[in-house]
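Exercise 4. Each item below gives a protein and its sequence. For each, produce the structure-token representation.

Item: EF-hand calcium-binding domain-containing protein 1 (Podiceps cristatus).
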Amino acid sequence: KSEVESLIKLFDTLVAKSSNRFAAVGFDRNMFRDTLHSTFGMMDDMLMDRVFRTFDRDNDSCISVVEWVEGLSVFLRGTLEERIKYCFEVYDLNGDGYISREEMFQMLKNSLLKQPSEEDPDEGIKDLVDIVLKKMANVPFLLQDYDHDGKLSLTDFEKAVRDENLLLEAFGPCLPDLK
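Answer:
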């Protein structure tokens, strides 16, 4: 109860600071991103936008107090199952229920530091996507990927993460670190 009350107080403080059109009901994408950046050290714009969309359950472009508390509950204290579902939703860029090779490529390209080199950085990212898919392919797929079409369903993703927890944030950091 005290944690929920603290989250509500924090929400009210953030809304009070906000000078946007949603101030009466919550806060917008920019305020949310500022909070993710300043409180949790998130840097990746694309992932912060995806986290916003995952929190914004009713898709009204505003985080309400209920969405805030429910979202942070999973974000900060979620069970492994809840965190798997959350990360999958963040990574499923088009919301079709699969993480495709192209979505993996976009997230990895976005989250990897740009290193100056003579090599084409896109080639290295494609190689990394292949490695991730091969690692995921070692898991016996229960649904979609029998045909090796380069897409991961939630079930595929969950099985892979349960076998290797490091894969939970395989396509970029979208959860807070232990601090």
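Check: The chain has eight helices and two strands.
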